[in-house]
Structure formats: structure tokens, C-alpha cells
Amino acid sequence: xxxxxxxxxxxxxxxxxxxxxxxxxxxxxxxxxxxxxxxxxxxxxxxxxxxxxxxxxxxxxxxxxxxxxxxxxxxxxxxxxxxxxxxxxxxxxxxxxxxxxxxxxxxxxxxxxxxxxxxxxxxxxxxxxxxxxxxxxxxxxxxxxxxxxxxxxxxxxxxxxxxxxxxxxxxxxxxxxxxxxxxxxxxxxxxxxxxxxxxxxxxxxxxxxxxxxxxxxxxxxxxxxxxxxxxxxxxxxxxxxxxxxxxxxxxxxxxxxxxxxxxxxxxxxxxxxxxxxxxxxxxxxxxxxxxxxxxxxxxxxxxxxxxxxxxxxxxxxxxxxxxxxxxxxxxxxxxxxxxxxxxxxxxxxxxxxxxxxxxxxxxxxxxxxxxxxxxxxxxxxxxxxxxxxxxxxxxxxxxxxxxxxxxxxxxxxxxxxxxxxxxxxxxxxxxxxxxxxxxxxxxxxxxxxxxxxxxxxxxxxxxxxxxxxxxxxxxxxxxxxxxxxxxxxxxxxxxxxxxxxxxxxxxxxxxxxxxxxxxxxxxxxxxxxxxxxxxxxxxxxxxxxxxxxxxxxxxxxxxxxxxxxxxxxxxxxxxxxxxxxxxxxxxxxxxxxxxxxxxxxxxxxxxxxxxxxxxxxxxxxxxxxxxxxxxxxxxxxxxxxxxxxxxxxxxxxxxxxxxxxxxxxxxxxxxxxxxxxxxxxxxxxxxxxxxxxxxxxxxxxxxxxxxxxxxxxxxxxxxxxxxxxxxxxxxxxxxxxxxxxxxxxxxxxxxxxxxxxxxxxxxxxxxxxxxxxxxxxxxxxxxxxxxxxxxxxxxxxxxxxxxxxxxxxxxxxxxxxxxxxxxxxxxxxxxxxxxxxxxxxxxxxxxxxxxxxxxxxxxxxxxxxxxxxxxxxxxxxxxxxxxxxxxxxxxxxxxxxxxxxxxxxxxxxxxxxxxxxxxxxxxxxxxxxxxxxxxxxxxxxxxxxxxxxxxxxxxxxxxxxxxxxxxxxxxxxxxxxxxxxxxxxxxxxxxxxxxxxxxxxxxxxxxxxxxxxxxxxxxxxxxxxxxxxxxxxxxxxxxxxxxxxxxxxxxxxxxxxxxxxxxxxxxxxxxxxxxxxxxxxxxxxxxxxxxxxxxxxxxxxxxxxxxxxxxxxxxxxxxxxxxxxxxxxxxxxxxxxxxxxxxxxxxxxxxxxxxxxxxxxxxxxxxxxxxxxxxxxxxxxxxxxxxxxxxxxxxxxxxxxxxxxxxxxxxxxxxxxxxxxxxxxxxxxxxxxxxxxxxxxxxxxxxxxxxx
Length: 1252
Description:
By secondary structure, this protein is of the alpha+beta class. Among the domains are: about 185-310, Calcium-transporting ATPase, cytoplasmic transduction domain A, CATH 2.70.150; about 315-395, no CATH class; about 455-485 and about 500-720, Calcium-transporting ATPase, cytoplasmic domain N; about 745-855, no CATH class; about 925-1165, Up-down Bundle (Calcium-transporting ATPase, transmembrane domain). Its main location: membrane.
């Protein structure tokens, strides 16, 4: 039976983030939880109603019948009849059975491959003028290379799955722990997870080695946040810690069906005939890890693909770049051209065929293709004959060349770029797919997560306002950036009392070291500090000294506030279930330190609906007081009458803090009488023990006491941005890229970060669409979900129409004011409705910046898809947690932030970088170069194949449209594979219009990619015109010159002499034409071009010098030797390429001088600049921090490089590393080309020696 549970099922899924849908059924309360959207139940109900009408479906909607599942803990036999899924997961794209059909399907999605399949079939018929091998072999090679690449990439995913599924975990077997792999885990098993290990499935938390049944969980893999979350087991299960005791546990779990809501969970635990309600506090999710806890014991609830993180997964998308899809249109245009050419030839054949041409021998019995009695059949058969004859118009080697170029670009250029190497985490950039390189050069919209992507998730107490007085003299990153933009210099001299530690970066001598006692109202300061020290759920850890203690908090904000209280002299260092102990300094008099124990009577916890947190505590002297902290909008509406001056001043300070990009909270307190408290506490206990609507009743009871508050002041916390984020966003904005921030954080926080990142400023017109309105609150108070949905939708519709009208006025005016849109998740849910989606899209596209707050991962993906599909713009999503996976997969390009914040986003991404600022290099340098190079490769392929095929087409007119070949079969087969293959690959790898530093110095150059300047139909038409022109030159010059020519024996030239001459001219000309198209030319270009031409001559010398029986090689036997013995050959070989290329040369000169591209202007500006070594000098500091292997790689990067001989720009050639390295004493691996280099150096040395 165990084999049944050991099976590894293969499914196409990727690890993902939170979705918006979840079970709304309750089994006794406990739903909701920190991080859920406001009014979660209403949102979920409304979204479920809207789900059927959505056209964009992302993530999976899981079946919810039956309505709940029953799990018998520690009893596999009882769970067996239900048939719960195993714990094995798969993220692969293929399996053994689907690889070949699905892989071939992927390949034949490409129009060219499908076309060549048809041509290969046609070439096996008698009507084909060419041998089947001519088409079958190239197609087979193309498919083989592509399938090998797909198999290699999927094999890496499979290896990763094996590693994850084989991770050991301790499972209770009898009365002892036994280690088994994750994949053998089953629902109902009791497991032990040790410190720093990941949870193997979704677990019900039973017991912990920590007191009070508490454990600390890191959710970095889910949401990118590195701060620890606190989870608490039910008191009834605390004893089931040791295996002997755990073996006695036979509980029954009734819970919701598997769903994709990360932050909600409802269920009951039935143990000893007692029913206990379960909440998200008892749920440990797969993908999270255990921290600061020796080990925990839990029961498996959801396994494998039914875990919440996997339920958020989306099928692995098969992404194709926009350029590749446009290439399909070009291929279709070539099809149309091919059809017209064949139609002309077929009609011509039907008209031409006639018995009057007696020398054709059309008397008596002739085959159908040349039977004058049935001209229609002649036309049809000739049509198919010409299709196979002109098949070279579609370049079969194009896709292989492009994939080779992309692969080398990814592995050698992107992955090894030291400008995208992060020293602190030792993390290089990683291209996880090579299909989307050029897409990086056309991105117009970036969708970014906030926490861990734009910010470091590092909160620091920075400023505060106490009793109407502002404290803190520091300069925020937002203020510093604004001053730099205005050309101001800020003096940031710090005082002697300035203190900087983790969570605290404050500078104001008026408050530090007890100086607050000298302020105007020290009693208010004392209340402020006590509120910071008491109103929280932080747990102290470690040594009870200020220097060594660490705080475990549910959010980094809380830890920062408690750290601030410590630095102000109110050191919280001990907590029990009922007391908090604070070491207070300078309270009675300066220098006096005393430990004070405060009794914590009630904690009214923070959630996204309340937006505040309160504690009721009793002082040692019996004073009862309620301390409250929360958002300013919530606190101000609960303040008592009076104190208008403090309220006004504090509000002004809050606005200043907000404009400086700081996160703000208001602090208030209220003294309570014993009678009032006792009456209220009875209601609180009743609400807390309620099994139905517990959260709602607790909120209602809290409102009864959280009123008539007295304002103390406000705090301002800085969420540190990642290094270089504002500059990166400013550069990307100049490049024409619009950046949207999609975050699960509250609106105030998101706006602050947007200010800090330079996304929003006070000069912008801001449109705010929020669900925090009186109308919606009133509807929510009535509790009717249908009414809430109706009211919210009407409000969103009205706001969208109003904002759109205002936006049109601004856009049509002359103010030039930029627009910004801020919208929260609840409003966004209705705005994404099909009836309102168009209005949202129109408004969003008119805004320079968009910030979406409190959004679920599913909404992130829907917004991305809205712009991707609705506006047809190229999108890029960047994030660092599993909640960003759907968004990453929905965009054209997905970028994961790697490093310290987990790997879920990276595993689902197309590219991985360590810091947001590396987007500058990834897009403006590598993306832009890749786009330019591949555009040139594609248009050049189009040109050279059209040129070659048109010469065959002109020949058809002189053969009575019979389908006679102009070229030998092998000429046609090897034209793309050998004679013109290498130079175009060299261009695709190394062509560089401007250097990397100039690409970042002039970000406006990137707009050419957004506008697709280099792959427009106009560009294709220019190449097509010159292909048409050159084909005429090749055909008619060679044929006209040969009419009067003769060989050394006096015979005139025949068909194969002329065609060989024409083919020689084509090979020489198209290779030289590529040099004209290059922006930078190195010796690799010369080697590849000359090598291709030499390869043709070597081939023709051998091929025409040998004749084998039973083939058609006798056609060109000895042809090249005859040709090269005539003046005609050399005259034609010199004249034809010059005449053919003269038109291109003239066009390029006129275009560059009178209609230049932006990059050509930059080239002219910097054409006399010396070689740019600045980028290498920037890397010198990196070299001091590298490992020996990294140092060697860095040393190699510093070796001499070649310089472009075409435009004068610096060009980093990959050649001769080992030669130069040996000269400088650096070890570098050998390269094939170095052998030739050393051989030539050796021969030269010997020659010099012999001369001497």
C-alpha cells in the first residue's frame, strides 16, 4: 500500500503566491489574519461572484465540494479511503510521455518549421526538382537542436524537484521519530520540524519547545519579508512534544477544502470530545521556515499540490518574445511572396506549354506536368514544383541561429556581467531562459513589488512628534533625492548624541540621554515613551541587556518602535503572559534607573480593518490606562474634544513626515476607571470566547473602549530603500519606461515609498480611488455582502469616470502636469470587472505612475495581464516572494530578486538579479543590445534568402516556367548552413552600436526599442528592395556577360558555369553586405566573413573535382576550374559585388547624414573619444571582495581587449584570454583559438630567429 503513496506525480505547476479566492465557510470562527485585505469575507464573496464574468483567468479556482475535509491525526488507515494526494510536487514542463508530442508542438508553433515540414513532404514526391535530403536533413537538425535545448532546461527543473521531494523530515512511527523524504508524507501524519528547516506541507501547529506554545516563522519564500512571524499552538496541544506523548494524540481535524488564500484558514480540532476553533495562527505553511525554535510538532493538513502555496501556482507558461511573434508575420509575408512567385510561374507554365516548341519532345505520351492537352493540371503541378524550388526563401537555419545567439548572450554576457554582481550576497545575475533576451530591449511597463524589491524591509525610527513638537534632524532618502534634483547641497552633520543601530536612526539632543526632562512638557514625553514600550506584541530574546537583546516582532515597524523606546531610556526586556517589565531611566531624576512591572490586562491586536493596536495595562500604583497606536485617520476620529492646537500641529507634522517618505503612526492614551473597565472586560471575554463571527464581535467591543482618546504624538519610520533605487527609477523613466508598484501594503505606506522612489512627487496630480469612504463603511456596517458589492462598484465606477475626465483636461491643457493613480485592492477588484476594465486601462495608461495597494497576488497578475493584453504593451514584472509569482508569470518578462529573500520568485522567473538597480544594466545595456542584434540578424536573413531565391525566380522566365533548377542541390542546401552562417552569428553576438556606459548615459536611446524602430515594415521593405535590386544584378550581369564568353577550349558557358559564377557572386556580396550593416567590426567579423568565402571556394574545388556515379554531380564536374581559367570569372567577381553594394552604400550614407537614428547621433558625438575604461575602473573595488575563483574571473576581465576598427568604439572581444593571461601571470582556461594564436606566434618567432 505504501507504494501508492510513494508515486511521484508529474504536473505542470510552479510555486506561486497568494490568490484572492478561498473558502468562506467557517467551522467555529478564527478566519482572517494579519495581511488579509480589509473586510476579507466581503471581498472574497464579491470576488467569487465576479469570477464567472472574468475574461482574464489567472491561477486556479479549486473545487470546494464537499465543503470541508475531515482528517484523522496519526491514523493513516482511517485517512486511506479518502485518497488524499501525496506530498510529491513537480514544476517541470514535460514528462516522459508528453515531451515528444508537446515539444514538437512547441516547435511547429513556429510557422517556418511547419512550412519546412510541408516542403520536406513535397520533396519526396516525383514533382520535386530537388532531392528530399536537401530539406529533410536541415529540418531534422533544427528540431533536434531545439528539443535538446528544451530537454536540458526541463531536466534542470526535474533535478530541482527531486532535491525538494527527497528532503528528509521526521515523522512519528509508533513512539519514535523516523526520517523519511518529503514525498512520502501523508495527510494526518505527525511530523517534527527542526530549527531552520522548511515546513514540508501545510501543518497544524501542535507543540513547540518554546514556552507558551509559540514558534517563530520566516515567510520570506512567500512574501519576501525577512521579519519573523509568531505562531501560537492551542493550549490543549502543548503537551504533545515528545514522541511518547505525541503517539497518544488522536485528534480529528475538520477544516476547509484546499484553497489558495495564504492568510485565511478556518476549521475545528476535535480532541477528547472537545471542539476547539482553529485560526491562521495555528497554520504553518509549506515554503516557510522555522526560526529561533529548537523544533515544533505538527499534523499534516494539506500536501503536495494541495498546499496553499502550490494552489497559487500557475501552469508554466511557454513564453515567446514579441519579436519572435512579429517574425512569424514576416514569415507569412514571405509565404505570400512565395505564393505570388509560384503563381506567376505556374500560370506562365500553363500558357507557355505548347507542341509548337517541337524541340521539347511533347509529342506522344508525356507526363502530366508537361502535357499541353491539360493546361490546368500543368499549372497545378508546376505550382507544387516551384514551391519546393523556391523553398529557400524561408530561412530554415534562422531559428537555430537565433537560439544559438540567445543562448550565448544569456550564459556568457548576462550571467557574467560584473555590473550585475552583488558582492554582499555573492549573487550574480542569472538568465533562466534564453528565449526573451530581446524582449528586455522593448519593455514599456514595469510592475514591481515593494517589500524586498524596492525596499530592504529594514525599518528605522527616524523622527517623531510629541505634544505638538517635532523631533529628529535627519535627512531621508526622499529629501536627499529631491535636493539633488534641485541642485541643493545638504549639510548632514550629526550631533554627538546621534544614535544608529538596527531599527533606530535618530538624531536630536533634546530627547536623548534623559534630556527630554528639560522639555516644555516632560509628562507627555513620558507617556509617549511608555506607549512605545508597552503597546506591542514583541517578544524579547537573549541576554537582558540593551546591547545584546533581540526583539522578535510580527513586523519590523514594531521592533523599530520598541528599539526607539529602549534608546529613549524605557528598555522593555521581559514579557510573561500577563506582565511586561520595563527598565526606566531618568524618570524620577537624572541617572536613576528602575525596573517597573506593568500588568497587561488586554491586547486589542492590529489588523487591516482596525488599522490600530491597543493594550490595557495596570501600573504598579493601580492606574488603569489604555495605550493605542494606529493610522492617523483612525486615531483622529477617536480623539476626545479639545486639544485643537496639538491636533493641528501633529497633523502638520504628519504631512511633513509623509512628504519625506516616512511611515507614520499616531499614539494616544485614555485613563480608565475600574468600573468602566470591568463592564467592558465582561463584554470582551464574551466576544473572545464566541465561536461565530469572533473577529467582528471583538472589533465591535474594541470600539466601545477605543474612544475619547488623548493624542500624545506621532512616530515616523523610514523603510530603507535598496541602494540605487531612486536613481534607477529616474533612469528608467528617462528611457520611456513606466513603473507601477503593486503591493500588499496599506495605502499610506505605498505612497510613502512611491515618494521615496521618485515615482510620485508633489507636482503630480494624484487620483486616489480608495474603499476607505463613509459610504462603503456604512454598507459594511449593515453586513449585507450583496449591498457592499453594489455600493463599492458604483463608487468605483463614479471615481473612474471622474478621474478620467480630469485626466483628459490635464492632458489637453498646457500645464504639462504629470498624473499618478493610487488605488486599493478592494476598489481594484471591481475596477477589473469587464464593464469597468476599459475605463481603468484608459486612466492608467494616461498616468506616469500607478500605485496599487492592498492587492492580492491574483490581482497583481490581473493588472499585469490587463496592460499586456488590453494595451498590447510589453511588460516586465519584478518581485522577490511567492506572492509575486503569478505576476511574474503573467508578464512578457518575469524578473525575480535573488539573494536573502527566498527563492520562490526566482524559480518562476525568466531572469534573476540580486538588486532592483541592476534593471538598468539588464534593460538598457543587455536588453537593448540583444534587440538591436536580433533585429539585424532577422532582417539580414530575410535579405540574403530573398536575394538567393529571386535569382532562381529570374531564371524561371528563361526556362519556359518548367521548374528547372538554376543551382545545384548542394549549393542550395549549404547556402544557409555553411556559406553564410557564421558571420551573422558573430554580428548577433558582438555588434555594439554604443558602449555600455553610453547606453546608460543616454537612456533615451532605449525608446527606439519601445517604438520598435529596427523591425518595422519600412525597415523590412528597404532590405527587400535591395534584395530585389541585387538579385537582378547577380542574374543579368552574369548571364549577359556569359553570352559572349567562352572557355579556353572555345566553348560557350553552359548553365552550370553561369549558375556557379552567380552563386560565387552571391556568397561574396551577401557576406560583404553584412560588414556594411555592422556598427563595430573586429577581427572576428573579418575572420568569419573571409572564412565563409574561403569555405565556398574550398567546397567547390573539392566538389567539382570529384565525380561519383549515380548522382547529379556530373552537372558541375570541373566547372570551377574552367571558370577560373577565364578573364570573365575575375572581371565578374570584381564588378558584380561593387555594383550590387553601391546602392546600399549610397543609401546608408544618405540615411546617416540626413535621417540619423538616435544612436548614430551619439556615435558622432563620441566618435573621437578614447577607449572607455571607466566601466572597468568601477569594478576595481569589486576585485577586493572576491573569492579566488571570482578574483581570477575578474583578472581575466581586465585583460587587453580589441578595439573596433569601424566606428572607433571600445569593443570587448572574448578572444585571446589565455594568451594575455599568461603574459600577466593569471591562469585562464584554454580556448581553441588560442592554439592557432600560439602556433602563429611560434612560427613568427622562429622566422625572426632564422633572420637573425
